[in-house]
Amino acid sequence: MTPPAVKTRFAPSPTGLLHLGNLRTALFNVLLARAAGGRFCLRIEDSDAARSETRYLDALLEDLRWLGLDWDEGPGDGQPESAWRQAERGGVYAPLFERLEEAGAAYPCFCSAEALAEARARQRAAGQPPRYPGTCAAIPRAEARRRLAAGEAATLRFRVPAARRITFDDGVRGPQAFASADLGDFVIRRTDGTAAFLFGNAVDDALGGITHVLRGEDHLANTPRQLLLLQALGFAAPVYAHLPMIVGDDGAPLSKRHGAGAVAELRAAGYRPEALLNYLARLGYQPASDELLDLDGLARGFRLAALGRAPARFDGAQLDHWQERAMAVLPVAALTAWLPADLVPSEAREALVATVRPNLRFPQELADWARRLYDPAPLTLAADAAATLVAAGPGFFDAVSEVIAASPGAGWDSLRRALAEATGCRGRALFLPLRLALTGVPHGPGLGELLDLMPDDIRRARLERARELAANGTSLDASDPQQPH
Ligand SMILES: Nc1ncnc2c1ncn2[C@@H]1O[C@H](COP(=O)(O)OP(=O)(O)OP(=O)(O)O)[C@@H](O)[C@H]1O
């Protein structure tokens, strides 16, 4: 089988909940692979045992599946875990560490964390950028072996070649150049024997046949190091492309450590996967159309050269815009699943959904509407709503009840005229107290549609209670106007 021309990957660490920054990276990798008829892989970078947790891995997989970002290779594809999980790949890395050491391209480093911190502090104080001072670079091999045999802890450091210019053409940012003198020898194996990020990440890309590494700009400084490493190992380098970071309101990049913009939270709040994907796809990329698109639609024409370089601020209003669009096309059957099981008679469920859906921002708001229109328990009214009923007066509700009782099956147009005549009110003076009496909230679908939907006994009870309230002239407990009780 010939390898695909494009093979991308998303390689998160299971150290926190997936956030919108991670997700945009995952999405763009999916789009790049799809646009080219290539493959998308999911790899889990859990070699840092202290920070990685199974619950985060589970949450990550659940989030990606919910979003429909399916992977061609990775967890659940029938391959052994060592194909996609770094913690299981020690056996793959060991001979490569050895190869580098044998070639003199890596050496054991015995510096303690304290000694390294002191060196960094000294460099900073002298106005120099902190980098490894090379303390262990010249330790003779025999001596290093002796110290290791005596049980001394050591990392393995990559020896950065002197006086080299490292250049590459970033798929998003264009030509990049770095001086090796600025890099400093870096750790590729931790003291516990596990692969450090720079090593495991680059090696897995190479061995996995990844052609394009599309990742956040936070990795840009890693790229020259990884290029040197791949070269020392004799592996081909992928195309590297770095996306601008997504920043939060405070201007800081979203990150797992800060827990902002977690996908799981947005899902729990009722956001639709299509809304998230359509919102994120438009951060730094202009899809073929302004419509709500599925993954194939978003992928049409996707290419690295079309990606923007400006950082993107998370914009809740834009996300809500796409949520609205996603809700508008959600099939009625998908929405009825959100109705409480026993409140709304089965023959009324579809009509209820069809009536209130233009007013829904989130599917779970359906439960509120079901209670407003079908729950016999009295509504709880906000103070200003109760005041509106009191101001309308008991006579208003007597007249309304009489007209409604006398006109069964009347269309809204004639009912409206009859109500206006009987109450002497029109426009807002008529509709607001009536709406508040029936639903408890000042907004929602057309009154005629609501009246059609509501069972007679509930409608009657709501008007009766509004009358009582207006007659007593007292306000009920002020409470959340969204919650009917
Ligand atoms: N705010 C962000 N905007 C865009 N991409 C991001 C952002 N944060 C992380 N990424 C990208 O998400 C991918 C997965 O990264 P990773 O799992 O290390 O997440 P992280 O949020 O940086 O985690 P941590 O907070 O533990 O460093 C990487 O390609 C990374 O560059």
TrEMBL record:
ATP binds at residue 256. Coiled coil: none annotated. This is Glutamate--tRNA ligase. The gene is gltX. GO terms for biological process: glutamyl-tRNA aminoacylation. It comes from Sediminicurvatus halobius. Belongs to the class-I aminoacyl-tRNA synthetase family. Glutamate--tRNA ligase type 1 subfamily. The keyword GTP-binding does not apply. SUPFAM superfamilies: An anticodon-binding domain of class I aminoacyl-tRNA synthetases, Nucleotidylyl transferase. GO terms for molecular function: ATP binding; glutamate-tRNA ligase activity; tRNA binding. Residues 339-466 form the Aminoacyl-tRNA synthetase class I anticodon-binding domain. One of its GO terms (cellular component) is cytosol. Signal peptide: none annotated.
